[in-house]
Amino acid sequence: MKGLMMHRPLLISGLLDYAAEVHDHATIVSRRVEGDIHRTDYRQMQARVAQMSFALEQLGIVLGDRVATLAWNGYRHMELYFAISNIGAICHTINPRLSAEQLIYITHHAADRILFTDLTFVPVLEKLRDQLPADMRYVIMTDAAHMPETTLDALCYEDLLDGQPTKRDWPDLDEETAAALCYTSGTTGEPKGVLYTHRSSVLHALQTGVSGFVADMGRDARILPVVPLFHVNAWGLPYLAPMMGADLVHPGPALDGESLWTLMETEGVTSAWGVPTIWQGLLGAIEKHGRKPAALRHMVVGGSAAPRSMIEAYEKVGVTVNHAWGMTEMSPIGSHGALPWQIDGAPFDERMALKSTQGRRAFGVEFKIVGDDGQRQPHDGKAKGELYVRGNNITSGYYNNEAATAKAMDAEGWFGTGDVASIRDDGYLQLHDRAKDLIKSGGEWISSIDVENIAAAHPKVAQAAVIAVPHPKWDERPLLVVVPKSDDDRPTLDELHQLMLHSLARWQLPDDIVYVAQLPMTATGKISKLTLRDQLGEYVHPDLRTGENG
Ligand code: AMP
Fold first, then answer.
1. H/E/C letters for each residue in 22-44?
2. Is 440 tagged catalytic?
3. Among 107, 184, 208, 395, which one carries the catalytic annotation?
4. What is the pLDDT of residue 218?
5. How close is the Cα of 511 to the center of ligand 1, in Å?
6. Same domain, yes or no, for 371 and 329?
7. Helix (H, G, I), strand (E, B), or coil: what is residue 38?
8. Which end of the chain, N or C, is less surrounded by CB atoms within 10 Å?
């Protein structure tokens, strides 16, 4: 027998409407690209979102259209999340750190109709314009006074709002309507689109909201997302914050330790979210000032493994660290490290050991581990295998990419993460390795295979392999290992960089080159990265070398 309760669609528009009514005290602070600090609240945001939605329709945007953003964290970017999705269009956030080639690829693959850009990226777009979709319109996210001279034939964000009605009843969309699109380069090959629905986004906010780490933040949460709005919806914060009534402090483009320290101090930030590289930078500023920003007491670290030394350094200055794991394909939060209050009194070492794991699964996310033999492994803390996940916030397939979808999903409908993990019987997840051949530098992906393929195309290279080596600031950096065709005429790193710059961004280039006589091979004739990593275990990144090498 079916129950007799209403079925109302879970829609993103409901989050902002709720916040405007119930969390009218909460504020949204943004350090703007223009340089100043801007303040608003959910009520004003609701009005401007209505205005932008009317403007979008006047520009011809209809249900299912993709509207792209290329922008830092700030109130205008957050307004677009709602203005675009609330009318049934799809907010496609683009990562500005992608190479030009990838940016061109994804704007075409997504068939974006409009691109909203911060002032910062106007010069890049001017350069690429001829290769971007010919009929795409551009809107610069600023006011008339700051509009630059540009060849883009661009509209001005604030001008679009002018004179539009500030109230709107949102359409009753089907909750499965696509709301947002984010491309990930976290797998090999071209970037792949993850297409979130209204339902998955609202459920993710609800599921994150009930998880322990939101409680950890306290009732007076004032959250600074360094995690970008252009990457996995800033870990869902634009939806979660209005739902829980949290203040937001958007840092704009200034993400160095000192700028963040100052903004946190002056704005009374209590919780900050971002990748380990950023929090390493903030540690430097804390050392310089001799203290943490006064109100800061909570931090979410994820996107890459947080080193235990870093977690301890923050805990020692009074910041509770929550080490979280997730993926673009998971909306993204999969697990997190809020510890149960019952072990508050446990020894420091014991608590830090738990916090160094990837934590326990969020409600609504299921885990399974699959061994090399394809068999499901026990959750005993010992057995390792690829981690598979299932849940309402997890992708069921990539946007317009059947081949990548078939590769990622198993016969039972679970999604393969490409992470190699073990799980304890009390649920703590420990990541050990990556099955995907990728390097994560400062929270952003570099494909080893892409770099290898380019290097291998050089006439002086017989074989090439790329592995990740640890780096104190960037977590990992790529190291290029080359078998030269002739020892008398080895390719230099600079020669290979010249070749790579055609299709890779500068930060994706390997920092160093090691020449070897041969590469270790697996039984199936592939380069054994595992053995190569072992063989180069003593290798030290140039940034860490001391003594006569400087
Ligand atoms: P992305 O989709 O770019 O957010 O990347 C997701 C991937 O980043 C995961 O599959 C992991 O390989 C890695 N990752 C994310 N969080 C962590 C973490 N806490 N520890 C280790 N690796 C992580």
1. HCCCCEEEEECCCCCEEEEEHHH
2. yes
3. 184
4. 84
5. 22
6. no
7. strand
8. N
